[in-house]
Amino acid sequence: MAILRTIPVKKVINGIEVKTSESAIVAEKNYTTNGEYSLIIRGVDSCDISLDSKTTDRIKIKAMTKVLVIPDVGKIDEEWDEIDLDKGACIELVCVNKNWYILSSDGLKIW
């Protein structure tokens, strides 16, 4: 299992400087966001992604496996405690006022 990151960058998120990378490929059972612009999840049967509002205010997630997305504060779209993504799905989330909102999603993937 591994996490492959692009070139390191520094961002200011919620007034805090975060050392991160623009993108990461995650092949772990559990992962917590750290300011990345995008995550690609692959190489494992399933993955739980914890959204960290202290280091991440916006993120795109591409699921190449089953992914469970769990916010650290509030709910997703003020309604859900977590959200399941199936293989092939992609979602963009933003954290505003202690809630995570879906900005875009490609919807359900049915094969």
Q: Helices and strands in order, then pairings?
A:
Elements: E1 2-5, E2 8-13, E3 16-21, E4 23-27, E5 30-32, E6 38-41, E7 46-51, E8 58-63, E9 66-71, E10 83-85, E11 90-96, E12 99-105
Parallel strand pairs: 4-6, 5-7, 6-8, 7-9
Antiparallel strand pairs: 1-4, 2-3, 8-11, 9-10, 11-12
Provide structural commentary.
The chain has one domain. The chain has strands at residues 2-5, 8-13, 16-21, 23-27, 30-32, 38-41, 46-51, 58-63, 66-71, 83-85, 90-96, 99-105. By secondary structure, the chain is mainly β. The strands form 3 sheets. It has a 6-stranded mixed beta sheet with strand order 1-4-6-8-11-12, with no helix packed on it. Strands 5-7-9-10 form a 4-stranded mixed beta sheet, with no helix packed on it. It has a two-stranded antiparallel ribbon with strand order 2-3. The chain starts with a strand and ends in a 6-residue tail after the last strand.
Q: Any descriptors?
A:
111 residues; mainly beta; six-stranded mixed β-sheet; 12 strands
Number of strands: 12
Q: How many H/I helical runs? A: 0
Give the low-confidence spans.
Answer: none
In percent, how helical is the residue content? under 10%
The N- and C-terminal alpha carbons lie at a distance of 27 Å
Principal-axes geometry comes out as: globular
* SS-based class: mainly beta
- Helices and strands, in order, run as EEEEEEEEEEEE
Number of domains: 1
Percentage of residues in strands: over 45%
Biggest sheet, in brief? 6 strands, mixed
Task: State the gist of this model.
By secondary structure, the chain is mainly beta. The chain has strands at residues 2-5, 8-13, 16-21, 23-27, 30-32, 38-41, 46-51, 58-63, 66-71, 83-85, 90-96, 99-105.
